[in-house]
Amino acid sequence: MSAKSDKVCVIAGAGAGNGAAFARRFAAEGYRCVLLARSTGAISRIAREVKGALAISCDVGDEDSVADAFGRIRRELGPPTVLIYNAAARHFANLDGTTPEMFEEAWRAGTFGAFLCAKEAVADMRAAGGGNIVLIGATASVRGGANFLAFAAAKAGLRSVGQSLARGLAAENIHVAHVVVDGVIDMPLTRERMPDRPDALFMDPDAIAEAVFQVTRQPRSAWTFELDLRPAAESW
């Protein structure tokens, strides 16, 4: 790896859709990007395609795993200046179809992991005099559907974590934002699963990444906490 950087973006819950797009966008601005996921298969491929990126296996719901990952980030790249939290366990079921294990896994990936990653990142951001945290939410963050029990609980929890962080850290020049992604991400897997869905109802990951990047550039006099993103054709 090359020398440490003063611009390090950690993407927790990275993958082939939004995670890869976040890495491309921030790398284009000179950031060293870190891709965190439990499995390194997809993120290793992304890291090879994005200049200066680093893929690290990390279970965001495990305290030791998160501490180890952030320790490696500091040693190899430097302290994080941006944290994008994109992790989630996508369990979609109603009460009868949701097991206690599914509910806990969704909470650990979607809410508890954000708490753990924020604890690590904020320590460095305080030392640096500021930073940015962006939490990626969903429609379920603000509206629980019948078949989204565990997922909605985790996403609503993430939103509340974000509100508390934003209120508590603003005075320390740490901008915390929550982005509601209301739509289906345009990627080969979703196209295959939804072959009849109109093009206008898919969301371009690069467009989402651009919006997230711009949030991290906002002046303190006009910070966004919550940003809704959806296709123009989406019914809401």
UniProtKB/TrEMBL annotation:
It holds the Pfam family adh_short. SUPFAM superfamilies: NAD(P)-binding Rossmann-fold domains (SSF51735). InterPro entries: NAD(P)-bd_dom_sf, SDR_fam. PANTHER family: OXIDOREDUCTASE, SHORT CHAIN DEHYDROGENASE/REDUCTASE FAMILY (AFU_ORTHOLOGUE AFUA_5G14000) (PTHR43431), OXIDOREDUCTASE, SHORT CHAIN DEHYDROGENASE_REDUCTASE FAMILY (AFU_ORTHOLOGUE AFUA_5G14000) (PTHR43431:SF7). This is SDR family NAD(P)-dependent oxidoreductase. It comes from Marinibaculum pumilum. The lineage of its organism: Bacteria, Pseudomonadati, Pseudomonadota, Alphaproteobacteria, Rhodospirillales.
